[in-house]
Amino acid sequence: MSYVLAVITSFAEPNVKEITLKARGQAINTAVDAAEIARHKFMKELNVSKISIGTEEMPPRARRRHKQEISTIEIVLTQ
After folding, report:
1. Nearest of 49, 24, 25 to residue 35 by alpha carbon
2. For position 19, which CATH number holds?
3. In principle, which of 24, 26, 39, 68 could form an S-S bond with 46, CB 3.0–4.6 Å?
């Protein structure tokens, strides 16, 4: 709910007409939930104007030899 509050608060600022939520890996669920809760429960005039998905290649971590690919998402909300 803190992310939902952040979305609502951001749109309360003057001249803010668009917000982009970005997430990677397991946080994708949180970004999608925040966008949907904000749209359906609090700000019914919000629209999803764009969704971009992709993959980022992360450098190897300690004790790993291979690079890791992590899913990404960007959700653009407009008022």
Report:
1. 49
2. 3.30.110.20
3. 39
The pair of structure tokens assigned to 16 is 């803010």
Full residue range of the structural domain in which residue 49 is found: 2-60+67-78
- Total domains present in the chain: 1
Please give the chain's pLDDT, 79 residues, in tens.
Answer: 899 999 999 999 999 999 999 999 999 999 999 999 999 999 999 999 999 999 999 888 777 778 889 999 999 999 9
